[in-house]
Design a protein that fits this description.
Distance between the termini: 44 Å
CATH topology of the largest domain: Aminopeptidase
Number of helices: 12
Strand content: 15-25%
Order of helices and strands: EHHHEEHEHEHEHEHHEEHHEHE
Shape: globular
Number of domains: 2
Oligomer: single chain
Radius of gyration: 21 Å
């Protein structure tokens, strides 16, 4: 059997090879959406990404006969372990040819790195934490992934399970094409709740994004605290996310609910920029010209597909109909008035 070598990524050249390896795995997959290479470099930038202010991660490449055949990231989040009183690390950004020995070698490298951090368990796929892309696709491979969701070949499930992993939790994505029945039902519910609770729903204030992101983070960390896999966003992480998402935010679909002066809940829906990213193959420029950027702007304006990324309600207001009112407003403003279809994801099995 040919030798398999796994090495930690330490040079810029290896980092670039790590980022570009998925093009080999998905060369014949019509559903795959190539990521922006510039965005992937920023995501892995240890000096600038806020995860590294409290956590750590390492990247590994697998080679066979000198050719790259797999990659993996191992990450350690002390905030997660402190909150849940666990001793677990994560693997993520996993890509591999269909070879159990190569996959096992990658997991061995990730496990060894985490063991040196004092961790005794490993779970994934999770890119840093559940606040980022996570999960293994096990159905619906024919559909292109929406923004910030996972996509992988069908054989990954068997490959990963053959290395000793078992399912911990299922996540679901829901598709909305015709909102008419849901809108009628939600309007009835919303009218009933409004008679009992003085709920105000308003668009996010993008002109004061810093203060608004603090309100969103406060709601998020309260609303999600009892969910499986939850780890609080740090202030730096949420500010970073808000800055990254600002160009995509549509005020009609990013809403806050307040009862008096108290934040009650929020919803974030964004156009599915993956529709445009599929057209540019990861690059904004070609031979010095902004061809990819021009295509991105052109197709972005024509997007009529979205994703409802987050919906959260503070626990004490969960009987006030806030979730129903928020979803209704998003449906009315984007699906009814603008003709959007969309995905609601991801929701836990329980």
């Amino acid at each position: 059997m040919s030798n398999i070598e796994v090495s930690e990524v330490r040079s810029r050249g290896d980092r670039d090879a790590f980022i570009k390896f998925p093009w080999q795995i998905y060369a014949t997959d019509p559903a795959w959406v190539p990521p922006l290479i510039i965005e992937r470099k920023a995501f892995l930038d240890r000096k600038r990404h806020p995860f590294y202010q409290h956590g750590d991660a390492a990247l590994f490449l697998a080679r066979q006969n000198g050719e790259i055949v797999g990659r993996i990231m191992a990450s350690d989040d002390p905030n997660y372990n402190s909150l849940h009183q666990t001793n677990v690390g994560c693997f993520g950004l996993f890509e591999c040819v269909n070879d159990r020995d190569i996959a096992a070698a990658l997991f061995d490298a990730a496990t060894a790195w985490l063991r040196n951090k004092g961790r005794t368990e490993i779970m994934g796929p999770i890119d840093y934490s559940t606040n980022y892309v996570c999960g293994l696709l096990i159905d619906g491979f024919q559909f292109p992934p929406t923004i910030l969701t996972a996509h992988n070949p069908p054989y990954y499930r068997e490959l990963i399970e053959s290395c000793g992993f078992t399912k911990v939790k299922d996540w679901y994505a829901w598709w909305f094409a015709d909102p008419s029945k849901a809108v009628v039902h939600l309007r009835q519910l919303a009218a009933r709740f409004r008679r009992r609770w003085p709920v105000t729903i308003r668009p996010a204030n993008l002109k004061n994004l810093r203060d608004e992101s603090r309100r969103l983070r406060e709601i998020y960390n309260q609303a999600w605290e009892k969910n499986w896999g939850f780890v609080p966003f740090t202030e730096a992480e949420f500010d970073h996310l808000a800055h990254e998402m600002k160009p995509l935010i549509v005020p009609q679909a990013t809403l806050l609910a307040e009862i008096g002066d108290m934040p009650g809940g929020f919803v974030i829906g964004v156009p599915d920029i993956n529709v445009a990213l599929r057209r540019i193959n990861g690059r904004l420029t070609r031979v010095g010209f902004p061809i990819g950027l021009i295509k991105l702007v052109f197709y972005k304006r024509r997007i009529r597909k979205g994703r409802l990324i987050a919906l959260g309600v503070v626990e004490k207001y969960r009987r006030a109909g806030i979730a129903e009112m928020l979803v209704l407003r998003v449906m009315e403003e984007t699906m009814v008035k603008r003709g959007f279809t969309g995905e609601l994801s991801m929701t836990l099995e329980d």
